[in-house]
Write a structure and sequence with these properties.
Helix content is 49%, strand content 10%. The chain is an alpha/beta fold. Strands 3-2-1-4-5 form a five-stranded parallel beta sheet, with helices on both faces.
C-alpha cells in the first residue's frame, strides 16, 4: 500500500515538473527567437522586406551612426506587372522603404534596391550573398524584426558559407512583444511562422519558395 502511495506521488510530481517546464518553455519561446548581434561595421546594411517602416527606420538610424556606407533594400514579389498591364501604376514595398530611408537621412545615392523580386527570406539571403560575391564584399548587416533574427541567422549559416560575415539586428520599432507573444494574433502568428521556418531550415529546406 505504501509502495503504491509512493508511486502515485512520484507520478504526480513528475507530471507537475513537466507542466511547469512546458509552461516556461512556452512563455520563453518569444525571447528564444531573439538572436541579434552587437553593432559593428559592415560593408552594407540590408533591409529585409516586411514590417514597414520599422526595419527601414532602424537601418537609417544605424547608417547615420556610420556603421556602413550604403543600404540595400529587398524587392518582394508583387502584382506590379499585372497592374501595369491595366494601366495602374504600382509602387512596391521597396519604393516606400527607399522613401523612408531618404526621409530618415540616408542619401538617395546610397540606397540600392535589388533588381530581382523575392518570395521569402530564403531567397533574400541567396540574393544578398550572390550580390556580395559579385561586388567582392565580405560582411553584411541585416535589419529585420526581432522575432525573425534567429531564423535569419540559421538561413545564413545554411546558404552563405564561411567566407561571408553576418551581423543581424532586430528593429526595436517593431511591435512584437517577446514576453507576452500569445496575447495577440499578430505575435502568435509571428512565433508560429518562425518556428515552422526554423524547422524547415533544420531539416534541410525541403519546403521551397513558391515560384514568383
Amino acid at each position: 500500500m505504501a509502495r503504491r502511495h509512493s508511486l502515485r506521488i512520484i507520478v504526480l510530481a513528475t507530471a507537475l515538473v513537466v507542466c511547469v517546464a512546458g509552461t516556461l518553455a512556452f512563455r520563453g519561446t518569444g525571447r528564444w527567437l531573439l538572436r541579434e548581434d552587437p553593432l559593428a561595421s559592415a560593408d552594407e546594411i540590408v533591409v529585409l522586406s516586411g514590417s514597414m517602416p520599422a526595419r527601414a527606420e532602424e537601418a537609417a538610424r544605424i547608417f547615420r551612426m556610420g556603421y556602413a556606407h550604403e543600404v540595400w533594400v529587398s524587392r518582394p514579389a508583387g502584382p506590379g506587372e499585372e497592374l501595369e498591364a491595366m494601366g495602374i501604376h504600382y509602387l512596391g514595398e521597396e519604393d516606400f522603404n527607399r522613401e523612408v530611408l531618404i526621409h530618415e537621412g540616408v542619401p538617395d545615392a546610397d540606397v540600392r534596391i535589388f533588381p530581382q523580386p523575392i518570395v521569402n527570406t530564403e531567397e533574400e539571403i541567396e540574393e544578398i550573398c550572390g550580390q556580395m560575391r559579385r561586388d567582392g564584399k565580405t560582411s553584411a548587416m541585416i535589419v529585420t524584426s526581432p522575432q525573425h533574427t534567429r531564423r535569419v541567422r540559421a538561413l545564413w549559416r545554411k546558404i552563405a558559407g564561411n567566407n561571408l560575415r553576418l551581423i543581424v539586428r532586430g528593429a526595436p520599432q517593431d511591435p512584437f512583444d517577446a514576453n507576452h507573444w500569445w496575447r495577440t494574433t499578430h505575435d502568435t502568428f509571428a512565433v508560429v511562422r518562425e518556428i515552422l521556418g526554423l524547422l524547415n531550415v533544420w531539416v534541410g529546406l525541403p519546403v521551397r519558395p513558391q515560384s514568383s
